[in-house]
Specification:
This protein is α+β, with helices and mostly antiparallel strands and 359 residues long. It has 13 helices and 6 strands. The longest helix is centred in the middle third of the chain and has 24 residues.
């Protein structure tokens, strides 16, 4: 098992607040990062087979995507009553590994590993190629991505990315009729129907926890800054969603490789060795290193043909005997002779003769 400290001698630097989402097949454990489970794979493991249980799958997603711990606990209480087996399984897995409200790191809006699944979809045909051609496929794919996304990032004029803009504009429309009550210069109480939240501009916090976890201004913050006549609420977004960060991400370039005929390889790598002449038998290899059980006696091999010990009939080195000398062949011959003699006796002892009715 490799830890994060084993990567530093190899020049691998781990960025701060790094989070890895995976399934149960993850074998590498990094101590300095937060690892979470893919919610889509986790809901499949709940084994909700009946139609009634599948209709209650929304409980898992509501608990998984909840921003507040109180909302998470309320949904889990309902789930323990409706789906007790699924709730017990989720508790055994650990709430901190899949619930957004209890996750120790920052998952933002990434609750599944769909980004990795998209890579698998792209390489569904290329994965059957030889390793050199597969690496070249990955290189060409990255070269195309960095080129196209670099051009798009260079044309961005807005302070935030298009994805973050769409999120904020949706929350602006949703919070248009919320009521705001201020009780200090930087603290506000926002009423959202029957719910309310407290916004602190100095600490950059909101009691709904959506602003802190997602990094994008929530509706309560947008309603609060609207009372201050601040038309621009993009400054409250995380720096990871800015256009500058997007340009720095795709600002690199992947250089093409020269033609294979121009490669300079050492002589020991150019030498081609002949294929191996060892012939492997078909089927599964026999396990000759099995450890016998306690008080188990070894099986004594005895050939049924030559009656010798040490081998079976299939491995007998003696030549194949004639059919007359095979065990049991005389008895078969005697049975056939007795059968023919019995038929002759029946023919001779026939009382009635044979007559031709045509005469």
């Amino acid at each position: 098992m490799a830890t994060s400290s084993d990567w530093h001698p190899h020049g691998v630097r781990l960025p701060p607040l790094l989070c890895i989402l995976s399934t149960y097949t993850l074998k590498l454990i990094l101590l300095l990062v937060c690892s979470g489970l893919c919610a889509r794979h986790l809901v499949v493991n709940l084994r909700l087979t009946s139609k009634r249980d599948k209709a209650r799958k929304w409980m898992f997603w509501e608990a998984c995507k909840a921003y507040k711990v109180s909302d998470f606990q309320a949904t889990m209480d309902v789930m323990r009553h409706s789906l007790p087996d699924a709730a017990a399984y989720l508790e055994e897995v650990g709430y901190t590994r899949w619930a957004r409200s209890l996750f120790p790191g920052l998952r933002y809006s990434s609750m599944t590993s769909n980004s990795a699944e998209s890579i698998n979809s792209i390489t569904r045909f290329a994965r059957y190629l030889p390793i050199t051609m597969l690496v070249e496929f990955y290189r060409l794919t990255l070269q195309d991505w960095y080129f196209k996304r670099g051009i798009i990032a260079g044309k961005e004029q807005h302070p935030l990315t298009l994805w973050a803009q769409a999120k904020i504009e949706k929350r602006i429309r949703k919070s248009s009729n919320w009521r705001v009550y201020g009780f200090s210069e930087t603290e506000f109480e926002v009423h959202e129907g029957y719910k309310n939240a407290k916004v602190d501009l100095r600490e950059r916090t909101c009691t709904c926890m959506q602003w802190q976890i997602s990094g994008i201004p929530c509706g309560h913050l947008i309603a609060a800054v609207r009372t201050l006549n601040h038309t621009d609420c993009y400054q409250w977004a995380s720096s990871y969603f800015t256009s500058d960060a997007y340009r720095r991400t795709w600002g690199y370039q992947v250089n093409p490789l020269p033609s294979p005929s121009e490669y300079e390889l050492p002589l020991e790598r150019i030498k081609v060795f002949p294929p191996s002449k060892e012939h492997r038998n078909s089927g599964r290899p026999r396990d000759r290193d099995r450890i016998p059980s306690r008080d188990e006696e070894p099986i004594v091999k005895r050939c049924s043909r030559c009656k010798q010990r040490g081998h079976f009939r299939g491995d007998c080195p003696e030549p194949m005997p004639a059919p007359s000398s095979l065990p049991g062949s005389s008895s078969r011959r005697n049975r056939s002779q007795n059968h023919s003699t019995h038929e002759n006796e029946n023919e001779e002892g026939d009382v009635y003769g044979t007559y031709n009715l045509a005469d």
